[in-house]
Automatic annotation (TrEMBL):
<dbReference type="GO" id="GO:0015740">
    <property type="term" value="P:C4-dicarboxylate transport"/>
</dbReference>
<keyword id="KW-0812">Transmembrane</keyword>
<dbReference type="GO" id="GO:0022857">
    <property type="term" value="F:transmembrane transporter activity"/>
</dbReference>
<dbReference type="InterPro" id="IPR007387">
    <property type="entry name" value="TRAP_DctQ"/>
</dbReference>
<keyword id="KW-1133">Transmembrane helix</keyword>
<feature type="transmembrane region" description="Helical">
    <location>
        <begin position="44"/>
        <end position="62"/>
    </location>
</feature>
<comment type="similarity">
    <text>Belongs to the TRAP transporter small permease family.</text>
</comment>
<keyword id="KW-0472">Membrane</keyword>
<keyword id="KW-0813">Transport</keyword>
<keyword id="KW-1003">Cell membrane</keyword>
<comment type="function">
    <text>Part of the tripartite ATP-independent periplasmic (TRAP) transport system.</text>
</comment>
<dbReference type="Pfam" id="PF04290">
    <property type="entry name" value="DctQ"/>
</dbReference>
<feature type="transmembrane region" description="Helical">
    <location>
        <begin position="83"/>
        <end position="104"/>
    </location>
</feature>
<feature type="transmembrane region" description="Helical">
    <location>
        <begin position="12"/>
        <end position="32"/>
    </location>
</feature>
<feature type="transmembrane region" description="Helical">
    <location>
        <begin position="124"/>
        <end position="141"/>
    </location>
</feature>
<dbReference type="GO" id="GO:0005886">
    <property type="term" value="C:plasma membrane"/>
</dbReference>
<feature type="domain" description="Tripartite ATP-independent periplasmic transporters DctQ component">
    <location>
        <begin position="22"/>
        <end position="151"/>
    </location>
</feature>
Length: 158
């Protein structure tokens, strides 16, 4: 059976960690040579770490690799297991839906207020708009995972 994939999120996570590594290395070299450092590295690194976290969590969700306890699922009869899987999926959808909703609301407010980032003075919404977008991607992955588990795929031991 082919493993489920989240290619877009894998690419985003790979780019984020690559850029974090490159700007951190460049900052160390510049600081060593000139006793000064780049101003943008911390602000960009924090943003990229958040992007990396959400993209990586989305990949883990799609591949059924999130930490969880399957003891109860394995102990239940098939009908009750399906109810538990639906409950788990619904809980995930609620949490991710709230993140997407409030993240979008926050990004919109920052856009309206024209808030600038403290370090570089860039529009703050540039950083925040990724939160609801990645939460919506995770919502999609949650739905995919729940439907596949209800069809009998993605068991605990795979």
């Amino acid at each position: 059976m082919k493993r489920p994939d989240a290619r877009l999120e894998r690419v985003l996570a790979t780019l984020a960690i690559l850029i974090i590594g490159l700007i951190s290395l460049a900052n160390v070299v510049v600081r060593y040579v000139t006793d000064a450092s780049f101003a943008f590295t911390e602000e960009f690194s924090v943003f990229l770490l958040v992007l990396l976290t959400f993209a990586g969590a989305s990949v883990a969700l799609r591949r059924h690799r999130h930490i969880r306890i399957g003891l109860l699922e394995r102990a239940l009869p098939p009908a009750a297991r399906r109810v538990l899987i639906l409950f788990q999926g619904l809980c995930g959808l609620i949490v991710l839906g709230l993140i997407a909703w409030f993240g979008a609301k926050l990004a919109w407010q920052e856009y309206q207020w024209e808030t600038l980032s403290p370090g570089l003075g860039l529009p703050q919404w540039w950083y925040l708009v990724w939160l609801p977008l990645l939460a919506v991607l995770m919502l999609w992955r949650q739905c995919q995972q729940t439907f596949e588990r209800l069809r009998g795929g993605l068991d605990d031991e795979s």
